[in-house]
Amino acid sequence: xxxxxxxxxxxxxxxxxxxxxxxxxxxxxxxxxxxxxxxxxxxxxxxxxxxxxxxxxxxxxxxxxxxxxxxxxxxxxxxxxxxxxxxxxxxxxxxxxxxxxxxxxxxxxxxxxxxxxxxxxxxxxxxxxxxxxxxxxxxxxxxxxxxxxxxxxxxxxxxxxxxxxxxxxxxxxxxxxxxxxxxxxxxxxxxx
Length: 192
Hints:
Layout: H1 2-25, E1 31-43, E2 51-64, E3 69-83, E4 88-102, E5 110-123, H2 128-131, E6 137-152, E7 155-167, E8 177-190
Antiparallel strand pairs: 1-2, 1-8, 2-3, 3-4, 4-5, 5-6, 6-7, 7-8
């Protein structure tokens, strides 16, 4: 048993070595493109059960202005074809811009915090326009953070990007939706 434990520790050390080398080298890339899966937990329409889930895709484009600050554009599409088990469908698309602050740690993982603002559009039979209660294009705001795991000089896995996402669709109650968005992505890095 002791030999097995030593063998596992040696293998883990070799597996961690390339990531440590990348972390020591520093992230000198200027631009990045992240493409991944997005999950959203959101409010139900008026008179509904209170919440439902949506699934979709997200793409982020970032440009580093300093070692810590990155400007970003975030585009996403999420869908539910059976909202609140009534057969109504809802597609939300968002386009937001903002900034990301990346902590520089001598660690295998790269944590960050971000803030974004922009618009969210609703389509489908569960959208406010289709229900006759408001506009399908509203202000949206997101704040949160995440964790990247560098896989190579030009590739990382964004293990998690978790955000509080506020949307202001009319809903005949308070016109506020407090959403939780979780994304995981592959991040492609470009430049020095």
